[in-house]
Amino acid sequence: MLVRPEAHGWRWLLACDGEVLRSGDGRPPQVQGARVALILPGSDCAHFHLPAPPRAQA
């Protein structure tokens, strides 16, 4: 299964070893390290456990 952050309501996901560390809808963080992946809209990454999407503001 491929993961696209925008399909889950996020603008970016920060993942390490298949686990999502942080997610958000603002500016993505600076990333350093071979085991860390910054997943931006349009990126396909498999096997990530996604956090719950942000709640829509009424």
TrEMBL record:
Instruction: Specify the superkingdom.
Output: Bacteria
Q: What is this protein called?
A: Uncharacterized protein
